Hints:
Layout: H1 9-14, H2 23-36, H3 41-48, H4 54-65, H5 76-89, H6 93-98, H7 105-152, H8 177-193
The chain binds a DNA duplex (21 and 21 nucleotides) through residues 1-6, 18-21, 39-42, 54-56, 58-60, 62-64, 91-94, 105-107, 109-111, 113-115.
InterPro entries: Homeodomain-like_sf, Myb_dom, Myb_TF_plants, SANT/Myb
Keywords: DNA-binding, Nucleus, Repeat
GO molecular function: transcription cis-regulatory region binding
Amino acid sequence: MATMKKESVKTMETMPNKGAWTAEEDRKLAEVIATHGAKRWRTIASKAALNRCGKSCRLRWLNYLRPNIKRGNISDQEEDLILRLHKLLGNRWSLIAGRLPGRTDNEIKNYWNSHLSKKINKKGKQIEASNRECQKIEKKTVEISLELKEDNKPHNGSEEGSNVNFNIDDLFDFTDEDTLNMEWMSRFLEMDEA
DNA sequence: AACAACCTCAACCGCATCAGA
DNA sequence: GTCTGATGCGGTTGAGGTTGT
């Protein structure tokens, strides 16, 4: 990918190199990191003589050159984990990445923005629709119960004697998902404490 | 075949936080 | 305590690829 942003000649002359990394740059950077370690990025940048800033070198190393980087598609299992972690942590990409060996925060962020956010929106719309349906049913249930109350009301106006036993729990159909999430979250937090 | 619209992902930017002097 | 440089993080951009018309 020959990524070269539109820049004036002056900027090109004075600013550090920008755009896509070449194989040669990667090799030089890896070489310097091998001898000096992955810290003091500004020093690394100058030792590698790449005409790139320390920040760029760090990013390149973390997202591309670092060993044990897992390349390729995100598995269903990983996707599920990302979804759960995002639910728990929000856009804390580096924390999420920390729970996915071999994956980088940038990769997860990109995956979220291009795949999962769309999925969530889609699901969100479905949930909205089903919520609307639930509200309709709820409204109807309340109407019916009020009608029944009216019918069973003694003519002296007392509430006693009503046959309507209204159980609030019957209105909600809880799935096991919330319970599972709570259990999973506890396990996750235990991992951090360990 | 040509063009537009959309998608992906590497790289950049700005800000926040950390660490050492 | 505070100043300064280094590092880390999340948001954004845009080139190149893919798909649709």
